[in-house]
Structure formats: structure tokens, C-alpha cells
What we know:
binds magnesium ion; mainly beta; 5-stranded antiparallel beta sheet; Jelly Rolls
Amino acid sequence: xxxxxxxxxxxxxxxxxxxxxxxxxxxxxxxxxxxxxxxxxxxxxxxxxxxxxxxxxxxxxxxxxxxxxxxxxxxxxxxxxxxxxxxxxxxxxxxxxxxxxxxxxxxxxxxxxxxxxxxxxxxxxxxxxxxxxxxxxxxxxxxxxxxxxxxxxxxxxxxxxxxxxxxxxxxxxxxxxxxxxxxxxxxxxxxxxxxxxxxxxxxxxxxxxxxxxxxxxxxxxxxxxxxxxxxxxxxxxxxxxxxxxxxxxx
Length: 250
Ligand code: MG
């Protein structure tokens, strides 16, 4: 009983001490003013590059200024008025620059003339850090496997919804990417994370990527440590076009 009374007295002392020492909170105590948040100029519309973006594909620069083919030579796709179109059989194009964490905007258009079905219709892809594919495909009235359709992280995460526009119509992707970090033994410390907004609709919500994109096989088996990497656009044999590509490093 005496012990209990002592404990009670100690508690009373502690509470009254805490009350005395705790300063009265005012709004300014939780306001942070410095350093001031960096001021940038946003684009006229959300599709236009803001002032702190690197424009990778537009009308101002020659095609080969930011892009090469798979061998590091001049890109071989068709390029006119800021629009790059897959030239079948010439292979991927990739950025000369490498990126880690970023916000990427790009616009793509599958051929107006519908040819083939499933994965054979308007297939291309955006490879983040050169190895993680966000699928580009004409899935307007075109079924395919759900984890391989437009807006999927290919063979890993199906899109939340099918937000495709018709073939021949320009579509947008806004992609937010967090690069992986690695342990000393080469395994992921944190996995890559991807958010995709397709035509203004969230289709990937900060999903965790299992490993590099594999057409055949298990992504986890091919994980290798890597640093910054390029943006690669896929030649899957269909004349898919791209325009207005810009990136903000985070
Ligand atoms: Mg593809």
C-alpha cells in the first residue's frame, strides 16, 4: 500500500513538473520558413514542360541531341516536327543521359490503322533505367493478358483500369519513379517504385517492382545492382509514335 502511495506521489510530481516545463504552444512554433521552397514556372498545361524539366523530345532539339540507338549511334527512327516513330527493325532508342529518381512525362500514339491483336497491336514500351518496362500497347477494344496491357509494369503489375484512347489518338503517361537502392551483396535494399498516370488516370499507385522486366522468367532471378540508367523506348515492330517527352530529376 505504501509503495502504491509513493508511486502515486511520484506521478503527481511528474505531471506537475511536465506542466510547468512545457511551453505554451503557439502556431509559429511548428512553422518552417527556411530554406524557401524553390520557385519554378509550371507549364501552361500539365502536359507542358515546367521550367526545371529537361526536354528530351520536342521541336527545339535535333533527334540525336538527346537520343541514340542501342549501339550509341545516331537514332534511326523516323523523326519529324518533334515526333519520333518506331522504324521497324532498327531497335530501341535511348537517352544519352542517365537518371535515378524522376518524374517523366511522355505522349504516345499507336497506329490509326489497326493491325493484328493482343500483344501484336501497337506494341512499344518505356524502359525506366533501361530495364523496367511500362508497357505501351493499343488496348482499345483489344484484350491481352492483364499484366501485359497498356499501363502495366510488364508481367508484374496490371494497371488499375484500362484508360486507353482509340488508336491514332495521342495519349499521355506521367510516370514517377524511385530507383532501387542495393545491399552490398547485390540484392535490393529498397526495390524500384513506380506510379503511372495514363491520360490523367492513376493506373499504377507507387507499386514495388520485383526485378528487371523479363519476357520469359522470374524478375527476381535477374536482379543486379545498378546506378543511374537511360530511358529506353522499345521497337516491337509496330510504328508507335512519341512526342513531348520531358523529365524532372528528383
Ligand atoms: Mg512492349
